[in-house]
DNA sequence: CCTACCGATCGGTAGG
DNA sequence: CCTACCGATCGGTAGG
């Protein structure tokens, strides 16, 4: 990251991370700037030395995750893997994001509707485009005879929804490891489309 | 039932239905009693002649859906269908709920965390029990050799998550019918566990 | 079902 | 990063 304008102070990162945890748990609207400040150990007014508004916190959390997803898909589209390999890569990438960026990823998929104005419109447009690109990968696999003839839109929705379902999984319970969860999602969802 | 009681009941149903639509769209915390009253065409204070509190509205919406799910599963457990038939029934029941009780079902799966006190504890306990019962059905299918040896918990999560993913589906777009969505979910998710 | 109103809390600002 | 504070809005009540 170095000296670019995108560099963020440690305090701002702390605010974003703490806010992500709070937004995920209680929802954006039910999270107050006073509660956020208290968790960090400062007064509410002091938050505004690091961020401009509550809305901006949400935007930055979501943009950070969204850009990583876009980058992965762009890279995947250029590869010459098989359709099945690409779909497995998508499943493993998204489960990995859910595991490693749990709070931020959950906020993206569950709190995006609290974005405002152009930020909301952009997110919805980007998400639709992302889904369309995933559909195209599924469609190509069907055309090549690698996959069953299913509605690509449903396959894409099932994959993204299954990943989202991991939010419900209790990591602390330790009854199932992250690897077991991920592998079983792959087997179930790849198994259901493989010809 | 007298005329007054019938009117009051109809009005309460209108409040619950209007609130469900609003809670689903904006989230529970971001929905105000004033906005709710305005959509119905009365003053905010008048709502309290029909309901006791904002929290109670959420409770009644969720309880209504939750009880229907419990009833279906209880009935299914007593049937002597095969494991695969039971799982398909679960998928089709939940997709049907999502299609026909769209607002209320979405509020249950997306707004339950705004329940308070015992209502929250009860919901979480009931949901865990529901998942355990679904897992038992999957487990029985594995034991009988009907299904692949997958982690039942993941299969259950994938099924319930796929149904939840239908919230994202734009019914108005008409590019895919309800039946196409449901059938494709069944083929994908049953296909992935069938031995 | 309304008017009038309550105390609490919200996001955010001014000024140091 | 703080104290002090703003106007707006919240869920809900009293009384008719």
Note down, in words, how this protein is organized:
The structure is a homodimer of 195-residue chains. Chain A is an all-alpha fold. Helices cover 68% and strands 0% of the residues of chain A. Chain A contains 8 helices and no strands. Chain A has helices at residues 10-26, 33-40, 54-78, 83-100, 102-111, 117-143, 152-165, 178-191. Chains A and B meet through helix 7 and helix 8 of A and helix 7 and helix 8 of B.
Write the topology of this structure:
The structure is a homodimer of 195-residue chains.
Chain A lengths: L9 H17 L6 H8 L13 H25 L4 H18 L1 H10 L5 H27 L8 H14 L12 H14 L4
Helix pairs in contact in A: 1-2, 1-3, 1-5, 3-4, 3-5, 3-6, 4-5, 4-6, 4-7, 4-8, 6-7
Chain A binds a DNA duplex (16 and 16 nucleotides) through loops.
Rg result of chain A: 19 Å
Number of strands of chain A: 0
Instruction: State the helix count of chain A.
Output: 8
Q: What oligomerization state is this entry in? A: homodimer
What separation lies between the terminal Cα atoms of chain A? 44 Å
Structural class of chain A: mainly alpha
Low-confidence stretches of chain A: 1-7
What is the H/E string of chain A? HHHHHHHH
């Amino acid at each position: 990251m170095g000296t670019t304008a995108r560099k963020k102070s440690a305090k701002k990162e702390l605010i974003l991370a703490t806010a992500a945890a709070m937004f995920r748990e209680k929802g954006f609207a039910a999270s107050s700037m006073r509660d956020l400040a208290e968790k960090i150990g400062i007064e509410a007014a002091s938050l505004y030395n690091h961020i401009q508004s509550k809305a901006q916190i949400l935007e930055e959390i979501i943009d950070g995750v969204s850009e990583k997803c876009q980058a992965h898909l762009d890279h995947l589209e250029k590869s010459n893997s098989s359709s099945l390999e690409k779909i497995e890569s998508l499943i493993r990438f998204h489960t990995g994001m859910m595991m490693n960026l749990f709070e931020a990823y959950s906020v993206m998929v569950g709190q995006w509707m609290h974005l405002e104005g152009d930020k909301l419109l952009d997110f919805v447009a980007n998400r639709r485009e992302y889904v369309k690109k995933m559909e195209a990968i599924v469609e190509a696999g069907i055309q090549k005879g690698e996959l069953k003839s299913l509605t690509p839109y449903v396959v894409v929705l099932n994959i993204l929804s299954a990943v989202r379902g991991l939010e419900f999984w209790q990591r602390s319970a330790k009854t199932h490891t992250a690897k077991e969860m991920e592998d079983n999602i792959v087997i179930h969802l790849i198994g259901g489309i493989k010809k």
